[in-house]
Design a protein that fits this description.
With 229 residues, the chain is of the alpha+beta class. Among the domains are: 60 residues, Orthogonal Bundle (Arc Repressor Mutant, subunit A), CATH 1.10.10; 83 residues, SH3 type barrels (Roll). It contains nine helices and eight strands. Strands 3-8-4-5-6-7 form a six-stranded antiparallel sheet. A two-stranded antiparallel sheet has the order 1-2. A hairpin with a 3-residue loop joins strand 1 and strand 2. The longest helix has 24 residues. The chain is globular and about 55 Å long. It starts with a helix and ends with a helix.
Length: 229
């Protein structure tokens, strides 16, 4: 049996591998989890002893196949729980991350199966993050890019938003910047602000927020199909 903390580390390393590449450094893990580097070093040594990470001293770590499997299972629990809490228990999408962080370690496989069935076996959670399949195959990212990478005039569809900041999520929801929404970039300021048009309203986003939002391009054919033309 792994502790909740061990599972949290594996999930964090998986996320960092997917977004920052390998190897994942001690400082990256420390910053992501909000702990000290010595604490990370101690835990990484334990995970290495259990065969869940490959550790190269002074360089970083990478999940083993077994470590990836554990991380994907925890992620599946987490994202299914986020979907269940929003759809069936009337939680706001800004509230579910911390709840799911606690519950993800303690549900049975039968409970997981029943939650997935009730939800209709969704492929993404409320924030657009892909849910690993029941066989724990790694979800495909789909070639998404950051909103901040696009120029003025670009039209893109919001695909994923970070679920780690409650205040940011509340702002994005109020602004209508949620997965599935098409936005147009109307201004990219030199001092780190990006302005987008959402349903005729303009919303300004700090570059740090825009960098955490993942989008996909919207072509003319996609727009016509969405509009029924």
């Amino acid at each position: 049996m792994l502790s909740d903390v061990m599972e949290d580390y594996l999930k964090a390393i998986y996320y960092l591998q997917e977004h920052e590449g390998t190897p994942v450094t001690t400082s990256q893990i420390a910053e992501y989890l909000g702990v000290t580097p010595p604490t990370v070093t101690s835990m990484v040594e334990k995970l290495d002893d259990r065969g869940l990470v490959d550790r190269e001293k002074y360089k970083g770590v990478e999940l083993t196949d077994e470590g990836v499997t554990v991380a994907l299972e925890v992620l599946r629990h987490h994202r299914l729980l986020e979907a269940y809490l929003t759809e069936h228990l009337d939680y706001d999408w800004s509230e579910v991350h911390e709840e799911a962080d606690v519950l993800e370690h303690h549900i049975s496989e039968e409970f997981e199966r029943r939650v997935a069935d009730v939800l209709g076996n969704p492929t993404v959670d409320p924030h657009g993050d892909p849910i690993p399949s029941a066989d724990l195959s790694p979800p495909e990212e789909g070639g998404l890019t950051a909103l901040s990478e696009h120029d003025e005039g670009a039209r893109v569809e919001i695909a994923r938003v970070s679920d780690r900041d409650e205040e940011e999520l509340r702002y994005l929801k109020e602004a209508g910047i949620v997965p599935g929404t098409v936005v147009e970039i109307v201004d990219v300021a030199p001092f780190g602000m990006i302005t987008v048009a959402v349903d005729g309203r303009e919303q300004s986003l700090p570059d740090a927020v825009a960098s955490s939002i993942r989008v996909k391009p919207v072509g003319r054919e996609t727009e016509r199909a969405a509009g029924g033309a």
